[in-house]
Amino acid sequence: MFQLCSLLLLLLLEFSFHATSTDDFSTYIVHLDPSSRPKHFTTNQQWHSSIVSAVKSSTSTTSDNHHHFSSLENSFLYSYQNALHGFSAVLSQQELQTVQNHPGFLSSYKDKLVTMDTTYTSQFMSLNHQPASGLPRTLART
Known about the structure:
This protein is an alpha+beta fold. The chain has a domain at 23-110: Peptidase S8 propeptide/proteinase inhibitor I9 (Alpha-Beta Plaits, 2-Layer Sandwich). The protein is 37% helix and 18% strand. The chain is built from five helices and four strands. It has helices spanning 2-22, 44-58, 65-69, 72-75, 93-100; strands at 25-32, 76-80, 86-92, 105-110. Strands 2-3-1-4 form a four-stranded antiparallel β-sheet. A hairpin with a 5-residue loop joins strand 2 (76-80) and strand 3. The longest helix has 21 residues, at 2-22. This is Inhibitor I9 domain-containing protein. Keywords: Signal. It comes from Linum tenue. Residues 1-22 form the signal peptide. It holds the Pfam family Inhibitor_I9.
């Protein structure tokens, strides 16, 4: 009985370790000053990806998730160049602090999941999909 309790406790501790290490990484939107881009980068995307690559190589984490998010293709998500200048990436707190010290850094915020709302669907207004009675089938929308 004691061995079973010890095993369960060990599994619980390992599960909680992995759950907390997963929380160390989040998706962030990082705003940069485009006039700070070094001249040797021909595009903003090259500059943005080089920042993430440099941050990933300069920070070291012992987390198992670091292996998944340590490569550039898994962590660099998007380069913004029209409405704002910056990028989105999956970063740890330590990596975010390194980015915040980078020349050209303006601001950052944690990305959040939002749901899409629209007024153009019948689900938005909780309408059913039954055809109207008395209309010919060609006029009734299904």
